[in-house]
Amino acid sequence: MLMKIEAGRLSEEQVALFKKEGYFIAENVFDPADLELLRLDLEKEIGIKIDELARDGKLEKTYPEEAFEQRLTRIYHDNKENGEAVMRHLEGVRGGGYQGHSMFDLITHPKLLEAVSSLVGPEIVASSVYRIRPKVPGIGRGDVPWHQDSGYFSAHCDKHLILTCWIPLVNATAENGCMEILPKTHETGILEHHSGGNSGLLVIKDEDLPSGGPQKIVAECPLGGVIFMTNLTPHCSTPNTSDTIRWSVDLRFQSSSTPSNVGLWPNKNKEDGESNMQIACYPPEADFVVQSDSDPDAVVSYEDFTVRRAAYEPLDIKGPRNWTPVA
Ligand SMILES: O=C(O)CCC(=O)C(=O)O
Q: What phi and psi, each to the nearest 5 degrees, are found at residue 83?
């Protein structure tokens, strides 16, 4: 269900609803204009890669006149490999990918942090486990199988709230492949996952999803809205059957009292290495402080954010869980 929040925060009743359902959809966290710079930067970034592919003789038609919701579709449909190259450019080698200023500004946006603080408290750590997802019509790559985000995180973090904020950059609808969520099932703990689902993602088999309980909901969300979810909330996303791209970004936040790798520099300090790294909920990617009254100096600037992320980039740290491959 879609709800309005007031004064930027979830009310006590809304927080209680989030805790009961495992998710909450707020339709009015942002003004659409707040997201415009990121949309423009992603559009520019796509253009940079398309021009590079054209210079390398890999494509002729670059579709500069096409809108944000269309251009990548044209590239994909002309040649899948070129589409994939643009996707990889946005996704980066690991973790988050595109990290321009507008991406950082979204992660640290006061409106978002205000809403987040009503769920995780005022001392907030953000994670590099953020993703940019252009779901291109007719291209299965963006379809995400059923999973809990905790399937990707260390088991010792199952008992902590790692808040996913799923932010559409267009209106997300059933037709263009919004998420589906299984409500009231996040308190059952981690479900059996398997590796190697669509696009190499983790997957919960249908028979391992809680049954007999509440039905899945189709989580439509307008531009300006945010879907808040717990790390144990099962969710998936369905094919885009529209003719425009479903753009979204998902970010993750946690209280600074939960396990993270804030303050660790394993590329610089030996003692910050392997064993300490395993404390974090997702050791391969850098966490960073985005809001703190108790230690305002710890809050990262844009430069700190890029330096921290770069420090983790060359590290060869494996994801924490070993699920068996899907049969
Ligand atoms: O954006 C999607 O299609 C799926 C997002 C997702 O699975 C997630 O944020 O964990």
A: -60, -45
What are the structure tokens assigned to 27, written together?
A: 């339709």
| Residues 153, 53 within the same domain | no
**CA 142 – ligand 1 centroid, Å:** 9
Residue 115 lies in a domain: yes
Ligand 1 neighbour 179 (Cβ under 6 A) = yes
**Together in a domain, 286 and 153:** yes
The model's pLDDT over 219-232, given as tens digits with 9 standing for 90+, comes to: 999 999 999 999 99
237 ligand 1 Cβ < 6 A: yes
Question: Residue 59 sits in which domain range?
Answer: 37-91
Establish if 264 belongs to a structural domain.
yes
Judgement on whether residues 105 and 80 belong to the same structural domain of the protein: no
Using the atom order of ligand 1, give the atom closest to the CA of residue 166. Answer: 9
Instruction: Kindly report the protein residue whose alpha carbon is nearest to atom 10 of ligand 1.
Output: 149
The single-letter DSSP state of residue 132 is E
Alpha-carbon gap, residue 277 to 261, rounded angstroms = 6
Ligand 1 atom nearest 248 alpha carbon: 1
Q: Whose CA is nearest to atom 8 of ligand 1?
A: 250
Entry pTM: 0.96
Residue minimizing CA distance to atom 9 of ligand 1: 250
Q: For ligand 1, is residue 164 a contact (CB within 6 Å)?
A: yes
Contact 119, 14 (CB under 8 A): no
Inside any domain, residue 321? no
Residue type, 214: P
Judge if 279 and 240 occupy the same domain.
Answer: yes
Query: 102-132 pLDDT, tens per residue?
Result: 999 999 999 999 999 999 999 999 998 899 9
- Computed over every residue of the chain, the mean pLDDT equals 93
The answer to whether 98 touches 42, Cβ cutoff 8 Å, is yes
Q: What are the pLDDT digits (tens) for 164-217?
A: 999 999 999 999 999 999 999 999 999 999 998 888 899 999 999 998 777 999
